[in-house]
């Protein structure tokens, strides 16, 4: 069992992965990214390291005996002018900045390449925890109705379309109307924007819950990093908007704390649906 280096940003995912490593008896070491990692991650073995301190990061991982690394958690796109790189970080910065001009996926690929150059194997969160992704079908007791079919199809279509343009991973559709698409702000902030819209836009003709949140990976993205994610907070935020459910691509949507997500969705009356991946959507011209 190879020792894992967990590069931890914010949110619940890093803690979920760390706890699963503990439960499985897998050795691991946490690089807590300064300004992003939750304070609770301090209970696990690791070190606090700035995102541009690549030399310090590589040295800590190697000293700890890590062979693989996994990137997990929320990290905002950096202000490169404000970064304080160490010597190794300065060497990588021109390559990373150049790649970042091509979009977020380019930035992530460049960063992964730096770790691979140092001999680390990259693991996706879904590889560290093999039951973390959404399965095909309904997750929970609430099922979609025939009236939800149009919104489900439209929302997935829009989520995939913005993914092809490297914009975001999520979209909200109500009665066929696109209420919002996800940009740099993330899913929870997008849903908060939707909740502030007039109620007439967010409900059915007779005031009933209506609409869908869809999340899909970008066709071009590096799937070992930055797969779409939902958790209990996502379910609650979708309920505040008044949506009927959440849909995502099976095997390509991370579900954090699955049992808690199911319980929250069931109690709030939301369905969670996994649909098969569309093979013809992989290319930019699909």
Brief digest:
The protein has 286 residues and is α/β, with parallel strands linked by helices. It is 36% helix and 18% strand.
Radius of gyration based on Cα positions? 19 Å
Number of helices: 10
% residues in beta strands: 15-25%
Amount of helix:
25-40%
Distance between the termini: 40 Å
Low-confidence stretches: none
Average pLDDT: 90
What is the helix/strand order?
Answer: EHEEHEHHEHEHEEHHEEHEEHE
**Largest sheet entry:** 6 strands, mixed
Give the neighbour order of strands across the main sheet: 6-13-11-9-7-8
Structure class: alpha/beta
User: How many strands in all?
Assistant: 13
Shape: globular
Helix and strand layout, with pairings?
Elements: E1 4-8, H1 13-24, E2 28-33, E3 46-49, H2 54-63, E4 68-72, H3 87-100, H4 104-117, E5 121-122, H5 125-128, E6 137-138, H6 149-164, E7 170-174, E8 177-181, H7 187-195, H8 199-202, E9 212-215, E10 229-230, H9 232-241, E11 245-249, E12 254-255, H10 258-268, E13 271-275
Parallel strand pairs: 1-2, 1-4, 2-3, 4-5, 9-11, 10-12, 11-13
Antiparallel strand pairs: 6-13, 7-8, 7-9
Describe the structure.
The protein has 286 residues and is of the alpha/beta class. Helix content is 36%, strand content 18%. It is built from ten helices and 13 strands. The chain has helices at 13-24, 54-63, 87-100, 104-117, 125-128, 149-164, 187-195, 199-202, 232-241, 258-268; strands at residues 4-8, 28-33, 46-49, 68-72, 121-122, 137-138, 170-174, 177-181, 212-215, 229-230, 245-249, 254-255, 271-275. It has a six-stranded mixed β-sheet with strand order 6-13-11-9-7-8, with helices on both faces. A hairpin with a 2-residue loop joins β7 and β8. α3 packs antiparallel against α4 (104-117), α7 (187-195) runs parallel beside α9 and α9 (232-241) runs parallel beside α10 (258-268). The longest helix has 16 residues, at 149-164. The termini are far apart. The model has no long low-confidence stretch (mean pLDDT 90).
């Amino acid at each position: 069992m190879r020792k894992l280096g967990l590069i931890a940003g914010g949110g619940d995912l890093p803690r979920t992965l760390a706890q699963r490593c503990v439960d499985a008896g897998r050795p691991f070491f946490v690089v807590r990214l300064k300004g992003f990692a939750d304070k609770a991650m301090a209970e696990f073995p690791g070190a606090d390291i700035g995102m541009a301190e690549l030399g310090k990061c590589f040295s800590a991982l190697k000293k700890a005996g890590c062979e693989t690394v996994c990137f997990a958690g929320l990290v905002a796109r950096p202000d490169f002018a404000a970064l304080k790189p160490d010597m190794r970080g300065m060497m990588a910065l021109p390559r990373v900045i150049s790649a970042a001009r091509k979009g977020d996926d380019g930035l992530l690929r460049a960063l992964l390449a730096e770790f691979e150059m140092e001999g680390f194997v990259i693991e996706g969160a879904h590889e560290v925890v093999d039951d973390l992704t959404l399965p095909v079908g309904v997750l929970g007791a609430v099922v979609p109705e025939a009236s939800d079919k149009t919104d489900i199809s439209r929302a997935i279509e829009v989520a995939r379309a913005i993914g092809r343009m490297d914009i975001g991973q999520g979209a909200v559709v109500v009665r066929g109307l696109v209420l919002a698409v996800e940009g740099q702000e993330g899913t929870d902030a997008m849903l908060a924007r939707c909740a502030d819209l007039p109620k007439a836009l967010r409900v059915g003709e007779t005031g009933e819950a209506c609409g869908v949140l869809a999340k899909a990976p970008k066709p071009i993205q590096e799937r070992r990093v930055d797969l779409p994610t939902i958790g209990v907070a996502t379910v609650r935020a979708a309920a505040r908007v008044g949506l009927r459910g959440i849909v995502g691509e099976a095997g390509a949507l991370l579900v954090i704390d699955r049992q808690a997500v199911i319980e929250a969705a069931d109690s709030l009356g939301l369905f969670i649906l996994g649909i098969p991946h569309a093979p013809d959507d992989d290319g930019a011209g699909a």
